[in-house]
Amino acid sequence: MRLILFGPPGAGKGTHARHLSEKWRVPHFAAGDLLRAHIRNATEIGKRVKTILDRGELVPDGEINELIASELSKPQAEQGFILDGYPRTLGQAEALEEFLKRRRETLDAALYFKTSWDVIVDRLSGRRACPQCGTNYHVRNIPPKAAGKCDRCQAELVERSDDQPETIRHRLEVYEKDTAPLLEYYRKRGVLQEVPGDWNISELQEELARILGKQKLTGKRQ
Ligand code: AMP
């Protein structure tokens, strides 16, 4: 299975990417999580991208293309992958296509999480994230078992620095300008699948199982 998940911030891509990854046993790579790990570890890349993330801008295509290509070159990605938050520009989509072409691979589907403004704002303003494993929670919709602690790794949950109202607004503008054109790009390639990002988690999990169940996928579910 080779999938990409795209849509505005707060559409639920991260939550569903994790679930699909567990269900189908394929690794998932979240571009934002990879960048935040670099920032946390104060790597050279992390130092270069920190202010970009804080401002809600996109890091340059070259930087993220290289990062993702190196993840996809790992042995565990040979049988498939789920990409969350990459590609986010036409340049990135073209780079991914080239990368896959060299390996004689194609995408099975590009899932577009169509999500309304009100839902996005509510999800992002109530979001709490685990700084270690990247799992997302929501103060009302997805509370952790123990208040303020990640269910998986017990780390203290945080509000993301880019989930502040002003930055949220800017990220949505960036999305409209740079990422929304991917809709047409993947529609033309015949792999676009629109999914209702407004639906609650269990409803959308069922819908995704239905959509992917009908799909002719590369690799097998184990
Ligand atoms: P996310 O966790 O997907 O919401 O991403 C958080 C931030 O990481 C974004 O606002 C961007 O600053 C950066 N980022 C994530 N993915 C990409 C990408 N594909 N291209 C450029 N910047 C990205």
Q: What can you see in these coordinates?
A:
The protein is an alpha/beta fold. The protein has a single domain, classed as Rossmann fold (3-Layer(aba) Sandwich), CATH 3.40.50. It is 47% helix and 13% strand. It has nine helices and seven strands; from the N terminus they run βαβαααβαβαββααβα. The strands form two sheets. A five-stranded parallel β-sheet has the order 2-3-1-4-7, sandwiched between helices. A two-stranded antiparallel ribbon has the order 5-6. Helix 2 crosses helix 3 and helix 4 runs parallel beside helix 5. The site of adenosine monophosphate has 17 residues, from helix 2 and helix 3.
Topology:
Blueprint: E1 2-6, H1 13-24, E2 28-30, H2 31-40, H3 44-55, H4 61-72, E3 81-84, H5 90-102, E4 109-114, H6 117-125, E5 127-129, E6 136-138, H7 165-179, H8 182-188, E7 192-196, H9 201-214
Helix pairs in contact: 2-3, 4-5
CATH architecture: 3-Layer(aba) Sandwich
Q: What is the share of helical residues? A: 40-55%
Here the CATH topology equals Rossmann fold
Please compute the radius of gyration using only Cα atoms. 17 Å
| Subunit organisation of the chains | single chain
Largest sheet: 5 strands, parallel
Hetero groups: adenosine monophosphate
Query: What string, H for helix and E for strand, traces the elements in order?
Result: EHEHHHEHEHEEHHEH
Sheet with the most strands: spatial strand order: 2-3-1-4-7
Q: Provide the CATH superfamily.
A: P-loop containing nucleotide triphosphate hydrolases
Which regions are unreliable across 5 or more consecutive residues at pLDDT < 50?
none
* Tally of strands: 7
Overall outline: globular
Domains (count): 1
The number of helical runs is: 9
N-to-C span:
11 Å
Name of the level-1 CATH class: Alpha Beta
Q: What structural class do the secondary elements suggest?
A: alpha/beta
Percentage of residues in strands: 5-15%
